[in-house]
Amino acid sequence: MDKPWNNKAWFLVLPVVVLVAFSAVIPLMTVVNYSVQDTFGQNVFFWAGTDWYEQTLASERFRDALVRNLVFSFLILAIEVPLGIAVALAMPRKGWGVSVCLVLMALPLLIPWNVVGTIWQVFGRIDIGLLGRVLADIGIDYNYTQEPIAAWATVIVMDVWHWTSLVVLLCYAGLVSIPDAYYQAARIDGASRWAVFRYIQLPKLKHVLLIAILLRFMDSFMIYTEPFVVTGGGPGNSTTFLSIDLVKMAIGQFDLGPAAAMSIVYFLIVLALSYVFYTVMTKTGADRPGGR
After folding, report:
1. How much is the average pLDDT of 2-13?
2. Pick from 21, 98, 227, 236: most CB atoms within 10 A?
3. Please, what are the domains in the chain?
4. How far is CA 138 from CA 22, 55, 125, 131, 132, in A?
5. 137 to each of 126, 128, 173, how far by Cα in Å?
6. What are phi and psi of 234, to 5 degrees?
7. Residue 263, C-beta contacts closer than 8 angstroms, at least 6 positions apart
């Protein structure tokens, strides 16, 4: 006998579908509509087809911003993932220190993005900022408003300070979920600390690291508020990422058609790279001996 179909379940899902439609699908369709049209004001639109997409892909400005985004995301992942794993391994598993460490790790995540940018903007100033004054006093020429390397270093350190805690908390949750039986067997076999990490802890962190890497990649690739508040995309265009360039084009220049096409291309790049990350990491885990 077939199980009766319960239509009431759809009424529970309907509010979520409506919310997603208004918050995501409808705005996305609006952007797609703008990306294939041109306007000269007064809501008069002209069909442009794929002209804006071709202009975006052929634009040196877009390619330069894309390269900066890729370099920034690569540096962020290369720093925050190993650092997050190391901090999670060093955190206590029992006692009052667990609560203290978890609270300290969560504090940077509670600060709004624009406040983080303002904090580091003041912190790095060479006249009143603690970091800027200290570096100047010890003879290091540091000025993030005039030197591209200093601006990049400031933005990277700021992001590491703000978001490494997310990787730490995810990795710590994965570590505490490992049964003690694995560690007892490793002690009986006389396994070294490196062997325990390589053959027990790291494989068990595979799924957690997948989530952490995907989240940090998407966040770092779409970063806007913090570098905009600190550097405004400068000096020059050295920290002008795709998000900052997109806002300048849409709001500063009011080029709605090119900006809409650029945002669609931007979205597709994030989607494609996230899929590549997910596919590579899941296949790597499956191909590993004993992987599932």
Report:
1. 69
2. 227
3. 60-283 (1.10.3720.10)
4. 54, 48, 15, 11, 10
5. 10, 12, 42
6. -100, -170
7. 31, 35, 246, 250
